[in-house]
Amino acid sequence: MPEQPSYVTYYGLKNDPFGGLVEHPFVAVSDRQQVVDTLLHLLSYTEDIVFVAGPAGSGKTAVLEQLIRQLHENLDLVMVDVASISSDKELLWDLATQFHLHPDRSHSTQRLQLMLQAHCQSLQDQGKVPTLVVDDIDELPVDVLAGLSPVLHGGLDNTAGLRLVGLASDPGEIRRELSALGFASAQMIELAPLTLPECVNLLQAYFLRGGLDTGIPLDGNTLKRLHRQSQGRPGPFLDGVRDTLLVESQRRRRRSVVPWPHMVAGAAIIAVLALAALYQGGSDPEPQELVDPAAEMEMDSDPEPADETQPGIDQALAEDTAETVRQRLEEAMGGGPEDSAPEQAPESAPQDTEGAAIPPELLADLEESAPEPTPEPEPEPEPAPAASGHPLASPDWLRAADSGHFTIQLLGAREQDNIINFAQQHDLTPDNAALVRTELDGSPWYVLVTGSYPDRDAARAAIEALPSDLQGLAPWPRTLGALQGASGP
Fold first, then answer.
1. Span 297-315, mean pLDDT?
2. What is the pLDDT of residues 259-297, one digit of tens each?
3. Rounded distance, CA 269 to CA 350, Å?
4. 196-210 and 234-255 helices cross at what angle (nearest 10)?
5. Nearest in space to 374 (alpha carbons), one of 36, 55, 48, 49
6. Which of 13, 147, 351, 480 is a Cys-bridge partner for 311, taking CB atoms 3.0 to 4.6 Å apart?
7. Is 386 helix (H, G, I), strand (E, B) or coil?
């Protein structure tokens, strides 16, 4: 087993939170889980190409890994390595091989397409959805992807064929090129930067998995600096945290060979001995007589923060963060922090007095509400009580609309107030929008929809005409009939 980084021993961790031995909780404690849910839903219920967009370090790979882990039984997923693909025939041959169709290198492009069409139809007859995921799809020439067109469109009977998911830093250009070639409509899911509170929650989850249950051993100024430098991208943020811990632990180890949890105990012993000598000797000793090497070491080190259980974040924030992370980890990973936390949490590492507490401006940042996340999908709702107490709930146009018409779902959330605030910020009124209460996993789930359109194509055209900030939510068309049953009279 490779040697553990110095901060693992120094901070009393069971495992390296950023190493491969610890299950990374990234998706569980960020809005990326909603991205995974949206992907699963779109693949199951639409024929659109889905693009997941975000810069390097935004979490695309983590989303892909979680998508594979949470894959629905009805999805049959394959992936291709763009670096090994240089022609449409190679792409088709790779797909046929992964689907265990045993293609021959001598097969023509048309024959490979027919083989894949027949296989995709067979999978759908079995209730499965054939799905291709292409990481870095923007690096694949559009003429190579063009060879997929017959497979994506489903063949002679025009049934749904292969589903396509593309991950890219900026898929805008290839999306336009595919549209010009007549490919199906595309949905765009953008990975927004994490806010400072989201980064704190994420970091707390990592340390819980590493065995530290007492908070985050970094001060507020450092966290704010790392968040600013990473621009909210989780990859660079976690890399910055790891590097900071490594440098800090090595610096302190050079200044003292005594592990930090023992420093406090050593200082306490020295104090007790000093008091005993004072009372037994009956006179005040000279100050220099109380100094010994251990005391000099302690004096030379940075002073211990007043709150020994939480050096970098104040206690109220630590308790709130830890409780939030525990609940989400238990829901998403099936195990709480007690699975990995030590029986007795280690004392916190010494921190510099200056900046050890979160400054007021950071606390203000932490208290700000996070931006509205990418909409989380939900199954077709069963009839449920209507959302009430707000004009957006069950407007007249929704009740009177033809149940066969389509509407556009903009947003979904567990809290009704989040939907209402979003609608107010975007000037959505009961004349053009509706707040509908449905159910998701047995709990209330509120969705915001807008418009009534005679068919799916009209709804998709309306989505293309939405403002860019609304298009960034990856809105999607759905039937009004499914919502009217849940909207109430």
1. 39
2. 545 555 555 566 556 555 555 554 444 433 333 333 333
3. 18
4. 60
5. 36
6. 351
7. coil
Task: Tell me the two tokens of residue 252.
Answer: 């302190």
Task: Tell how strand 406-413 and strand 476-479 pair up.
Answer: antiparallel
Amino acid occupying residue 460: R
- Given a contact cutoff of 8 angstroms between Cβ atoms, the answer to whether 98 and 78 are in contact is yes
300 with 252: CB under 8 angstroms? no
Q: Are 28 and 60 in contact, with CB atoms under 8 Å apart?
A: no
Terminal-to-terminal C-alpha distance of the chain: 64
Domains of the chain, with CATH numbers? 32-190 (3.40.50.300), 194-367 (no CATH), 396-487 (3.30.70.1070)
Rounded CA separation 301/255 (Å): 7
Task: Report residue 454 as tokens.
Answer: 């005679």
Q: pTM here?
A: 0.50
Find all residues with CB under 8 Å of 400, minimum gap 6, and list them.
Answer: none
Integer Cα distance of 236 and 194 in angstroms = 11
Instruction: Note whether 142 and 175 are within 8 A (CB).
Output: no
